[in-house]
Amino acid sequence: MILIGIPLITLCGVLTTPIQGKTIVLAAIFYFCTGFGITGGYHRLWSHRAWNAVTPVRFIVLMFGAAAMQGSARWWCRNHRAHHKFTDTSKDPYNVRKGFFYAHFGWMMFKQDPKEVGRADIEDLNNDPMIVFQHNYYSFIVIFASIALPTLIAGFGWGDFAGGYYYAALARIVLVHHATFFVNSLAHYLGDQAYSDLHTAFDSVITALLTLGEGYHNYHHEFPQDYRNGIKWFHYDPTKWTIMLLYHLGLAYDLKWIQENEITKAKLQVQQSRLQAKRNRIMYGKNLDQNLPEYTSDQIASLGDARQVLVAIEGKVYDITEFADLHPGGRDTLTAYKGKEITQLFNGDTGEHIHSRHSQEILIRYIVGKFTDSHK
Fold it and tell me: What angle do CA 160, 165, 166 make, to 5 degrees?
């Protein structure tokens, strides 16, 4: 009803209701305030505790967060903390490995299995009377702050009840929804990975423009406790700028940020890893465009002697016999998967260990062919 019904009603209203300039300004103001309620409030303040504010500001931000119509702060933050704890695994509530549209809003179309979705600690939220109040009266707050308030302001202010309802309320809800949803989808698809390549988060100015500054997502996943997403002065991050303004006005405090030395270390580690990957390709790599042999699952299970271990990962066949005794989990850990396609296991999609970039680089030297039936 919310994710499909509201856009359809909005479309009908936009096609039949004239636009007034004052109403568009009102819609823009509500767009930023409710958007900040999510990005600055739900996300950076309550999910990651990257900053804090005086009680009146916290209350106002919490009300605007509810007006964004994305669930209560308690529900939203629980999912987001689980997302960071189990990124890119089956326990990630909006696991992008299930597809762009699943991460965007598909995950909300299905009832979540409590046995599958990862759990996150929200004891601090349960002990916050303001969060509990918003959670208990969320529906009433949404009806008033998200729909009635902008409609009444436009109606009594300049006689545009219909415009207030369709543009400042419903259309604004739709835009804020998808702007926020892009953080779960587009931010895990588009951009650069300067701070870590162990997860799917990317930095992108395009995503930042669409999400009130939440687009520097690779940095955020590596340093989620930083109140900033865009760390450079020229990075588009109006959420950061608003928090800074509140701080200078004496309304915000306890702003947390990462020291430049730690940021530089993370960038150098990624650069060193990529350089090592290039060295590996030069020394050991094989080009899959060459005439490498093709193997089926039956073949890789039966080839070689009893000690030989061949596995398939992402369409490539690897002979990891040499590495089996060096594996931290021991030879038995690898021999248990002899002759199998283990892409999901290797990438951590099964909820188990996610292999590092270094592990991926080591694999390169063991490529022996192509896997022709990766669906098995």
Answer: 100
